[in-house]
Specification:
Structural class: alpha/beta
Pfam families: Septin
Protein name: Septin-type G domain-containing protein
Bound molecules: guanosine-5'-diphosphate
Helix content: 25-40%
GO cellular component, one term: septin cytoskeleton
Order of helices and strands: EHEEHEHEHHEEEEHH
GO molecular function: GTP binding
Family: Belongs to the TRAFAC class TrmE-Era-EngA-EngB-Septin-like GTPase superfamily. Septin GTPase family.
């Protein structure tokens, strides 16, 4: 893999305490078909996590498939720390006319993982093999309208933002000009403010040390992250480079000048893992737990 050039916005290295067995980490991918979810996760993990879709039966091509929850597991090593990553992909999201059922299914899936922890916590005898499947990150791939969020995006963020850390992604970023990306980012963030959407706020921890606070504010200013997925790996003088090749030139996936992929990769697999897991466990789950226990009292 190419050495990623240091960026001004790079936060400090892996903050999570290295555990002997490693970190269990769960990421969910949500977005309409064709926005680059599969290519993104395969590029992130540097291997084929999600295989290419099988060819459709032409007789069924007019049918809209229901949304699915496909789980993929992989292990990787980042700065000496083992990461056991589970990816939950949700093909079929937003492809139908009525999306209400997608919203409900996603909410139920995320809440079910919370309910399982709640149940496990209340057992007298704990299950040694119990596996925490709480979703730590939901990567939401925005449809490139060029002018902010759609009703579907707003609705899903409102429905899930109090249950999961939502990170907004602009996939296939090489299809935009630099100006278009900047303007799309601006209008998305305007909508986030206008509709008070609860996406993950990198600058949430006001008690963090000043250096981390500054780093997190720099990252927050980049949101939503524009990413490019790898198409092939080519040999360059300084090693192999992950690219997308076009007749007119080559887009380098890890080049910070060309997209936010390198930075996002570092945030997702290194610098912010502990923040995402801690926020899920100590804030989102705790709020859910309190609500649930109060409901059960009534
Ligand atoms: P998914 O349906 O969201 O999982 O999308 P895929 O990852 O399968 O990608 C859909 C199409 O977009 C495929 O033809 C990919 O080769 C292409 N694609 C994926 N990532 C990029 C990217 O970064 N730039 C461009 N231009 N195309 C991409």
């Amino acid at each position: 893999q190419q050495d990623v050039a240091p960026s001004t916005a790079r936060p400090s290295s892996l903050r999570y305490k290295t555990e002997k067995r490693g970190i269990r980490y769960n990421i969910m991918l949500v977005g309409c078909s064709g926005l680059g979810r599969r290519t993104f996760i395969n590029t992130l993990c540097e291997k084929e996590i999600i295989p290419p879709p099988t060819l459709e039966d032409p007789d069924m091509a007019h049918m809209v498939d229901p949304m699915k929850f496909n789980k993929y597991e992989t292990q990787m090593n980042e700065d000496g720390t083992n990461i056991f990553l589970t990816t939950v992909d949700t093909p079929g999201f937003g492809d139908g006319i009525d999306n209400e059922s997608c919203f409900t299914q996603l909410q139920e899936y995320i809440e079910t993982q919370f309910d399982e922890v709640l149940l496990e916590e209340s057992r007298i005898r704990r299950n040694a093999k119990y596996r925490d499947n709480r979703v730590h990150i939901l990567l939401y791939f925005l449809t490139p309208t060029g002018h902010g969020l759609r009703e579907l995006d707003i609705e899903i963020i409102k429905r899930l933002g109090h249950l999961v850390n939502i990170i907004l992604i602009i996939g296939r970023a090489d299809s935009f000009t630099t100006k278009e990306i900047a303007s799309f980012k601006l209008s998305v963030m305007k909508d986030v403010v206008t509709y008070e959407l609860p996406i993950y706020n990198f600058a949430w921890d006001e008690e963090a040390d000043p250096e981390s606070q500054e780093e997190n504010q720099e990252i927050q200013a980049i949101v939503p992250f524009s990413v490019v997925g790898c198409d092939e790996v080519i040999d360059a003088d300084f090693g192999s480079v992950r690219v997308r090749k076009y007749p007119w030139g080559t887009v380098e996936v890890d080049n910070d000048e060309m997209s936010d992929f390198g930075l996002l990769r570092y945030i997702l697999l290194n610098s912010h893992i502990s923040d995402f897991i801690d926020f899920t466990t100590n804030v989102l789950y705790e709020e859910y737990r309190t609500l649930k226990l109060n409901e059960n009292k009534d």
